[in-house]
Amino acid sequence: MQNHLVGWLPDCPGQKESAGKRPSGRTRHANPYVKTALVQAAHTTARTQTYLGEQYRRLSKRRGAKRAAVAVGHSILVIFYHMMTTDQPSHERGTSSSG
Fold it and tell me: Where is this region: Disordered (predicted)?
């Protein structure tokens, strides 16, 4: 079902590979308001000391700021999906919950 949500909001390029070849890495058209919100949230996380902030900085070195923002926006969407389906709060990756 997670792939269904991400497919409904195609803000990230597909990960399909066949015979060692990948189709175009362009993003498809989607709801412009949701895409804008996800990309703005991704740019905001770049200034934080979190897992998503580090992911943005790591990707922006190799791929550029815009592609990194789309990738982090996709990660934010997946985190949102898991929070809604499991009814649990999000936990920062790499930290233990036993404070």
Answer: 1-31
Q: Would you give the end-to-end CA distance of the chain in angstroms?
A: 32
C-alpha–C-alpha distance, residues 31 and 9, integer Å: 7
Q: Tell me the CA distances in angstroms from 98 to 63, 78, 85, 93, 95, one per residue in order.
A: 36, 24, 23, 13, 9
Range of the structural domain that residue 44 is part of: 29-90
Task: Identify the residue whose tokens are 């070195």.
Answer: 61
Total count of domains within the chain: 1
- Report pLDDT digits (tens) over 41-92: 999 999 999 999 999 999 999 989 998 998 899 889 888 888 888 888 877 7
Q: CA-CA distance, 65 to 35, in Å (whole number)?
A: 15
